[in-house]
Design goal:
DNA binding; 54% helix; mainly alpha; extended; Lambda_DNA-bd_dom_sf; Cro/C1-type_HTH; Transcriptional regulator with XRE-family HTH domain; 5 helices; 434 Repressor (Amino-terminal Domain); 0% strand; 117 residues
């Protein structure tokens, strides 16, 4: 019996990173989690469900040279703005990074404290 080309170790790493048991993963995928041993290859629908569950590109699970990328990438609008940052000075980019850091910290504190606004 030839081993599956599917990378079960990547699935296991993603599952562990998410803090899920094999049973929890199976429940989320609607199938069993025996794919981790790479002896059973999942079908395309199962790979898609895995990619959605872990927000990784579909190619990340079966291909050796696939880079880990999010399945749901930022919008093109955001990408275009990020490219424009190259036109700014180092000081201006630092200011933008500081503003982003402050807003993210504020959002995290809001979540922690259950506050609004």
């Amino acid at each position: 019996m030839m081993p599956s080309p599917f990378h079960g170790e990547r699935l296991k790493a993603l599952r562990t990173e998410a803090g899920w048991s094999q049973a929890e993963l199976a429940e989320k995928l609607g199938s069993d989690a025996r794919y981790e041993n790479s002896k059973v290859a999942p079908g395309l629908e199962a790979v898609i469900r895995m990619a959605e569950a872990f927000n990784v590109s579909v190619d990340y699970l079966p291909f050796d040279n696939a880079e880990r990328r999010p399945l749901n990438a930022p919008s093109r609008h955001v990408d275009a703005r990020l490219v424009d940052l190259d036109q700014l000075s180092d000081e201006e980019r630092t200011t933008i990074a500081n503003v982003i850091d402050a807003l993210v910290t504020k959002a995290k504190l809001r979540l922690i404290t259950g506050g609004a606004g």
